[in-house]
Structures are given as structure tokens and as C-alpha cells.
């Protein structure tokens, strides 16, 4: 494996505080910590989250991922002056996140208003091995004579979710003159949260403690000679009981903290690095490109895919902003099954299984929602947290002129999520051959989601139609026969029927109902120019010039000029819709239809959602339009990594990170799973000369490498796949060359593994 890249912030710019706090956030799937600065700035939003720890602050509020008491902040005083990069003179600034180790380091040379120079180096990481552990370290070196250094840090429970306080303080203690512990309980008395930390400083330092106004702090003071360094090493342990209070938890937390403090920063980092190294080994995508930002984008995406995924807990899933910010309240969307699960499915299938079990365990909530709405089966919540109930806020932003709030319609009608989950279940079954899962959780998920669709239709002139839905394009609400929804629902029911037939159980009418649904459900067919209607009324709506809005994709600027109701009545797409359908069910559409729909819909799409461009890129790659595909892929990378100062303030775009992987593997490597078969059709962009990645398929570990004219597959056992639509059996190391007649297997095969 080549060395992993890093992410550098070379300039201190308060406009970018929150963007970099997100991009450089630390995480291990259980704990996420935003990369805010040690010292306070009014414009930065601190954030620390535990996967699955949700709470509703009160009447009229929405359940949200709790922003925990802060452990990052340090009040630093240098010879009586408060250290802040907004005062004095900044002589050097460098912040770097190492994707390999997950360590974030900042080096600052600063001249105080008194004219004294200091070097301040700090670093921190979240352990990939011990899921509650967060460590930080700071070293301060005065250069112009001795200086008195004061640092106050500890546990700051004044932190809120933008003003909403979720935690009641229960107990603050300092044990053994060293270990600080804060115990909190969510206001609904459901979860206990414990934070412990210990700061290691020189024996020469004076240390005292204070507890005031929800802040438990250690105050350290030391006079340091010029050229010598003050150091402080902070180890912390963060934990919560997610399924009820537990008085024992605090003692356990303290034990874990003591173990960490004994090990110390360096040993914990080394141990965490080992764990991360093994993870990267099974996941990394390596690219040789003439643009170095391509490898960086892939490393960035995978770093965050690791950080956001709660591998330790099947009752939690991946939030749309991971564990990096308060955006979307930490809720789980279809983003998980469609944009994130494929990465796990093909690198660590057990994680994909767990994500599907999250839905299975939440079937009761999906049944409740379906029943409440008058339907049968499982209607999963559009936004999900821990309870499995619908968590979508009823209203979006307020119109401050009218005082009226815009209703969020997705929870009422964006039902494609149900079929998206079934799609992911099928993908899991095909990629793993996990019969046990498919016989129980898989079958139940497929059947219960299918039951929802069976009950959801209306009969119009003898055919079944799906009315009043919202497809992926959220700018077009409450429409009938959205192509994406109908095709996916059809697929969902077909999968359930197939599962039921295979299981050989008694027919309680389900089979007949499914057959009838499949025969009579209206699926919009391509018209003569092969374009498929997004819904019944789409073609009758006017178009407008979208150039201006497309240039500001992601900002929803069209809504500044038009009301939602007006946008609804025009051919304006927020995000891929029919194109999303082409992506999801590629085997259903011939290449001319795919190209015609891409050409029709893309110019009508603003790409105001981060789930859009990457999918267009993959579909373009499948059409053989490599340059276009690469442009879309890069635009997808720039959703978080681009220069826009505020695009990622409230958290990473998790789906966009997943789509960076999807674009490389499904777009350029041309990996496609069709009817249970694995197809590979490589087509690298001109900028790339080589692409390699690991890929799990049916219990077999494949290592795939490709250039513009060779394809090398290394397997740990025999497997069949399709290249140029022809089935080939490979074992060991197999090389293909691109010839005038397509990909040809190398005559001499060297079966070394
Ligand atoms: O799930 C998406 C949706 O498709 C578009 N709006 C944002 C959601 C969360 O990412």
C-alpha cells in the first residue's frame, strides 16, 4: 500500500472554522469529535457525539444527536495574555489531518501583543481501538525569555445543540487529585452520560481544580524557560447508556479512563494505528492520477466512512452527516442503504449485514408508521434515529415575513426509501450468499416492505398506480406514478415474491397478491425518444433557464427566486430521479434509453442535493462518456473538499463520501451487479493510469487492479465473473488485456495467490 495522503489547512481563516471542523473531525464509528481549535472562537461550533445517543429537548423540538460536553477546549494564557489567533501576530500556521493514523496536528508560531514569540503545537485523535477514548496533547515553547503558561481544560457542559440543552448535570468529581468525572442524564431520564478525563503535566506545574457553571476544569500553571516546553497530555473517556440509565456506568468509565491514562498518548496512538492499518488494508482504493487530489479525495472519503460507521452497535446506523455535526439532527436517511452500504458490502460485508439489521430491528416502528397512515406492512421513517419511529421535523425553515412554516413533505410521501431498503437487502444477499440472513431478516424485510406497496396502490382503469408520492427529486412533490418509485416498488415486490417462493412456505394469498401487483402496476415506459416521464405531469410543465442556479449547485438558490409551489410546477430537478432509477436498476434499460434520459434530465437538474452529481457520473461512465463521468466525479469530491467556505459547516455529506467510492468502483472500474452476477467493465478516466482496490464477493476476497489496457484480478479462491458480458472463471492471479476484440484473458495464468 502506498502511503496515505493527508488533509492540510495551510491558512488560518475564521470563515473556514466550521468547514475544517467538519472535514478534519475525528471518529471511530462510536465517538465523533469536531476539529475545532483548542482556544475559543465565537464563530466555531464545537461538537462531540456518540452514535445512537439521541434526545428530544422538549415540546415542539425534534429528536437529535446530542452534542456532548466539550473536551477539546483549552483556555491558554501566555504571560498574562489570552492566546487567540485573532490577536497578536500569526507567524506560522499549519494544521494537518493524517488519514492513516487519524491524528490531527496543528503547529502555530505566534507573537503576542507584548512581542513575545511562542510555538504552540497540539495534536489529538480518537482511538480506533478503544471506542470511548479521545486523547489530546499540547506543547508550548516560549522563545523570547521565560514565560508563565496557564492552561485550563476539562469538561465543559455548557455545550448545547445550538441552544438546546439535553443533559442534566448529576455529579462532578475529581478522584485522586487527577481524574475528573462529569455525570449527566438526558432530560427524559433515558440515558446516562459519563465523561472522564485526566491531564498529565510536569511535576513542577501547579495544579488546581474548579467546578462552576457546568464546567469542571483543571487549572495548570508553570513558568517555562526560553526554548523549554510546557506540555499537557489529556486522556478522556466518553460513554453513554443508550437503552436506559445505569448507575454502574460511571464507575466503569473511570476504570477505562485510568487504563488509558496509564497507557498514555503515544501508546494509545500506536495501538489505534494498528487497528486503522488493518482496516485500510481491506478497504483502500489506490489511484495513479495526474491530479494528486484524486487520491486525496478517495482517502478522505474512506477516512470518513470509517469514522461515521457504528460497527460496534447494530441498533445504530449511519447519520447523513456522520458524527461530524448537527446537520439533519444526526438522522438516518436512504443515504445509508443506497450510498453507503455498498462500500461496506464489498469491503466488510458483516457491517452491511449489521446496517440491514438496524432496519430489521426497527420493523416495529415501520409497522406503526404504516398503520398510522392507513397502510399495511413496513413504512420505514424517512428520517430515523434510535426508536425506529418517524423523526422528520414537521416543519422546515420559517418564512419570517409571514411567520408561516413550510411543511416537510418527505415523511408523508417520500416512500421510495421502503424499496431502497429492499434493494439493499437484495444486493446483500447477492454479494454474500448469506442464506441464514436472507432466510430470516432478509425475507422479513422484503415481505414487509412488499406488503406496504401492495397496500399503497390505487386502481385506475384496471391498472395499479402509485399516487401522491415524492421521488428522489424533492423539488417535485405529491405527484402520481413517479417512475423511480414505481420501478423500485415493482422490484421490491418481485424480490419478496421470489423469496417467498424459494422459502416454500404456504401461500396465504401473498403470492397471488404479488403476482397481481407485478402484472398490473403501471410502469412508465420510455416514449418514442426513449425518455421516461419522471411522473404523470412532468412533461406538461414549463422549463426555465437554470444556468444561474446550476452554477450555485448545492445552495438551493432557486428557492430565493421562486416559491416551492412554483418550483413544483416546472421541470426543475433538485437531484437525480429518473437518472437515479437508471443507476439502481441498470439491467432494465438499454444503453440508448440510458443515454437519452441522461441527456434529457441532466440539464433540468440543479444538483442542489449532494446525492446527485456522483450518480450522474456513474451513469455517464456506464454510457462510455468518460470525460463527463470524471467531471461529475470531481464535482462530487468537491462537495466537501471544494473551496466553498460554508458548505460543510454542519457536518460531512456522508452520502457524497460514499459516492466517491461508488464513482471509482462502479463508475470507472465498471463493477455492476446484475441479477446476482458480478460484471466488470473497466474504463478509466484519461487522468488515471491505474486503479486498485479490494473487493469482497461471495466470501471471496478479490484484489482488482486495472490500467487502460490491463485488468488483473487476484482471488483467494475460484470465482466466476463477467467481463464484456462473458462469464469467466478466475482463480489465483488472472490478467486480461484489452484487444480490438475486447478484454482477453492472458494465455499463461500464474496461480500465485
Ligand atoms: O436523503 C437526502 C435527500 O435525498 C436529499 N436531501 C438530503 C437528504 C439527506 O442527505
TrEMBL record:
Keyword Hydrolase on entry: yes
Start and end residues of each Glycoside hydrolase family 65 C-terminal domain: 672-722
Record's keyword terms, sorted: Glycosyltransferase, Hydrolase, Transferase
UniProt keyword Glycosyltransferase, yes or no: yes
Residues of the Glycoside hydrolase family 65 N-terminal domain: 9-238
Active site (UniProt): 474
Entry's Gene Ontology molecular function annotations: carbohydrate binding; glycosyltransferase activity; hydrolase activity, hydrolyzing O-glycosyl compounds
Domain Glycoside hydrolase family 65 central catalytic per the UniProt entry, residue ranges: 299-661
Gene3D superfamilies on file: 1.50.10.10, Glycoside hydrolase, family 65, N-terminal domain (2.70.98.40), Maltose phosphorylase, domain 3 (2.60.420.10)
InterPro entries cross-referenced by the UniProt entry: 6-hairpin_glycosidase_sf, 6hp_glycosidase-like_sf, Gal_mutarotase_sf_dom, GH65_N, Glyco_hydro_65_C, Glyco_hydro_65_M, Glyco_hydro_65_N, Malt_Pase/Glycosyl_Hdrlase
Binding site for substrate: 334-335, 574-575
BP GO annotations: carbohydrate metabolic process
The family this protein is said to belong to: Belongs to the glycosyl hydrolase 65 family.
PANTHER family: GLYCOSYL HYDROLASE-RELATED (PTHR11051), PROTEIN-GLUCOSYLGALACTOSYLHYDROXYLYSINE GLUCOSIDASE (PTHR11051:SF8)
Name of the protein this chain belongs to: Glycoside hydrolase family 65 protein
Source species: Cronobacter muytjensii
Amino acid at each position: 500500500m502506498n502511503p496515505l495522503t493527508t488533509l492540510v489547512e495551510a491558512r488560518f481563516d475564521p470563515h473556514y472554522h466550521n468547514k475544517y471542523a467538519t472535514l478534519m473531525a475525528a471518529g471511530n464509528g462510536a465517538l465523533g469529535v469536531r476539529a475545532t481549535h483548542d482556544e475559543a472562537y465565537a464563530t466555531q461550533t464545537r461538537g462531540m457525539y456518540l452514535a445512537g445517543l439521541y434526545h428530544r429537548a422538549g415540546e415542539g423540538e425534534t429528536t437529535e444527536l446530542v452534542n456532548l460536553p466539550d473536551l477539546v477546549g483549552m483556555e491558554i494564557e501566555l504571560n498574562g495574555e489570552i492566546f487567540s489567533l485573532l490577536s497578536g501576530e500569526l507567524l506560522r500556521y499549519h494544521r494537518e489531518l493524517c488519514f492513516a493514523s487519524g491524528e490531527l496536528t496543528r503547529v502555530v508560531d505566534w507573537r503576542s501583543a507584548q512581542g513575545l514569540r511562542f510555538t504552540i503545537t497540539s495534536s489529538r485523535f480518537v482511538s480506533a481501538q478503544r471506542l470511548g477514548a479521545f486523547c489530546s496533547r499540547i506543547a508550548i515553547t516560549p522563545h523570547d525569555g521565560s514565560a508563565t503558561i496557564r492552561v485550563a481544560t476539562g469538561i465543559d457542559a455548557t455545550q448545547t445543540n445550538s441552544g438546546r440543552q439535553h443533559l442534566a448535570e448529576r455529579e462532578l468529581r475529581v478522584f485522586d487529585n487527577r481524574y475528573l468525572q462529569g455525570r449527566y442524564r438526558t432530560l427524559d431520564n433515558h440515558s446516562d452520560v459519563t465523561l472522564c478525563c485526566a491531564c498529565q503535566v510536569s511535576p513542577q506545574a501547579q495544579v488546581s481544580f474548579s467546578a462552576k457553571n457546568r464546567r469542571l476544569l483543571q487549572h495548570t500553571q508553570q513558568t517555562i524557560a526560553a526554548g523549554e516546553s510546557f506540555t499537557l497530555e489529556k486522556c478522556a473517556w466518553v460513554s453513554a447508556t443508550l437503552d436506559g440509565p445505569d448507575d454502574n456506568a460511571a464507575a466503569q468509565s473511570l476504570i477505562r479512563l485510568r487504563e488509558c491514562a496509564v497507557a498514555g498518548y503515544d501508546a494509545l496512538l500506536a495501538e489505534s494505528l494498528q487497528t486503522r492499518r488493518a482496516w485500510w488494508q481491506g478497504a483502500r482504493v489506490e489511484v495513479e492520477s495526474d491530479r494528486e487530489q484524486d487520491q486525496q479525495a478517495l482517502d478522505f472519503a474512506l477516512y470518513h466512512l470509517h469514522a461515521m460507521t457504528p460497527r460496534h452497535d447494530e441498533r445504530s446506523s449511519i447519520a447523513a452527516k456522520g458524527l461530524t455535526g448537527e446537520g439533519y439532527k444526526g438522522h438516518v436517511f436512504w443515504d445509508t442503504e443506497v450510498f453507503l452500504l455498498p462500500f461496506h458490502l464489498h469491503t466488510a460485508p458483516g457491517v452491511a449485514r449489521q446496517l440491514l439489521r438496524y432496519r430489521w430491528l426497527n420493523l416495529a416502528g415501520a409497522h406503526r408508521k404504516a398503520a398510522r397512515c392507513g397502510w399495511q406492512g413496513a413504512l420505514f421513517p424517512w428520517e430515523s434515529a434510535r426508536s425506529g419511529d418517524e423523526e422528520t421535523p414537521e416543519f422546515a425553515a420559517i418564512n419570517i415575513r409571514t411567520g408561516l412554516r413550510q411543511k416537510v413533505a418527505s415523511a408523508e410521501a417520500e416512500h421510495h426509501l421502503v424499496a431502497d431498503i429492499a434493494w439493499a437487502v437484495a444486493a446483500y444477499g447477492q454479494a454474500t450468499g448469506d442464506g441464514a440472513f436472507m432466510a430470516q431478516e432478509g425475507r422479513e424485510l422484503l415481505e414487509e416492505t412488499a406488503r406496504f406497496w401492495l397496500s399503497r396502490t390505487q386502481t385506475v382503469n384496471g391498472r395499479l398506480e402509485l399516487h401522491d408520492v415524492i421521488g428522489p427529486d424533492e423539488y417535485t412533490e405529491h405527484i402520481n406514478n413517479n417512475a423511480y418509485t414505481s420501478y423500485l416498488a415493482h422490484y421490491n415486490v418481485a424480490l419478496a415474491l421470489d423469496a417467498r417462493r424459494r422459502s416454500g412456505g404456504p401461500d396465504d394469498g401473498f403470492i397471488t397478491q404479488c403476482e397481481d401487483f407485478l402484472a398490473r402496476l403501471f410502469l412508465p415506459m420510455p416514449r418514442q425518444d426513449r425518455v421516461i416521464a419522471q411522473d404523470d405531469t412532468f412533461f406538461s410543465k414549463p422549463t426555465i433557464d437554470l444556468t444561474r442556479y446550476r452554477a450555485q449547485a448545492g445552495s438551493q438558490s432557486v428557492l430565493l427566486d421562486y416559491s416551492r409551489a412554483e418550483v413544483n410546477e416546472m421541470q426543475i430537478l433538485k437531484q437525480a430521479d429518473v437518472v437515479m432509477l437508471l443507476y439502481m436498476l441498470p439491467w432494465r434499460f438499454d444503453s440508448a434509453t440510458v443515454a437519452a434520459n441522461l441527456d434529457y434530465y441532466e440539464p433540468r437538474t440543479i444538483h442542489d442535493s449532494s446525492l446527485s452529481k456522483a450518480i450522474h457520473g456513474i451513469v455517464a461512465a456506464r454510457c462510455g462518456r468518460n470525460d463527463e463521468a470524471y467531471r461529475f466525479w470531481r464535482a462530487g469530491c468537491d462537495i466537501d473538499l471544494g473551496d466553498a467556505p460554508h458548505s460543510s459547516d454542519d457536518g460531512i455529506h456522508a452520502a457524497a463520501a460514499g459516492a466517491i467510492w461508488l464513482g471509482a468502483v462502479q463508475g470507472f472500474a465498471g463493477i455492476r451487479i446484475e441479477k446476482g452476477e458480478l460484471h466488470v467493465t473497466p474504463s478509466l478516466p484519461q487522468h488515471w493510469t491505474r486503479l486498485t482496490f479490494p473487493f469482497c464477493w461471495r466470501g471471496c476476497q478479490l484484489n482488482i487492479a486495472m490500467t487502460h489496457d490491463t485488468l488483473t484480478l487476484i482471488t483467494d479462491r475460484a470465482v466466476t465473473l463477467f467481463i464484456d458480458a462473458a462469464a469467466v472463471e478466475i482463480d489465483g492471479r488472472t490478467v486480461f488485456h484489452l484487444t480490438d476484440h475486447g478484454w482477453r484473458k492472458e494465455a499463461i495464468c500464474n496461480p500465485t495467490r
